[in-house]
Specification:
It is a single chain. This protein is of the alpha+beta class. It has 4 helices and 3 strands, in the order E-H-H-E-E-H-H. Helices cover 34% and strands 16% of the residues.
Length: 95
């Protein structure tokens, strides 16, 4: 497929069966071809290269999976060092 992808063409199932070679050619040249049965979309004919690109894409993990894939922090020591004194901060006069 070259150039800008055109909007998918819709075919009634009977017509797609009768003109299958044209449907395949148009899938290659123009983009996905949608096959309808009883007025409902039921199938898509794709160019093989487009199909391979879709197959090779790994699903992106959700937010939960992203967080769980991070490093193991269970050994991280988050205890505060109390050997130094805390300093007092004067907040008066601060707007």
């Amino acid at each position: 497929m070259t150039g800008e992808q055109l909007e998918a063409t819709k075919w009634q199932l009977q017509e797609a069966k009768q003109r299958f070679s044209e449907v395949v050619r148009r899938a290659h040249d123009e983009g996905p071809q949608i096959v309808m049965r009883h007025g409902r979309d039921v199938a898509v004919i794709l160019d093989m290269e487009e199909y391979r690109q879709l197959k090779s894409q790994e699903p992106k993990p959700g937010f939960k999976e992203f967080l769980l894939s991070g490093p193991d922090l269970s050994d991280l020591d988050l205890a505060r060092d109390k050997s130094t004194e805390m300093r007092d901060i004067d907040f008066e006069g601060i707007e």
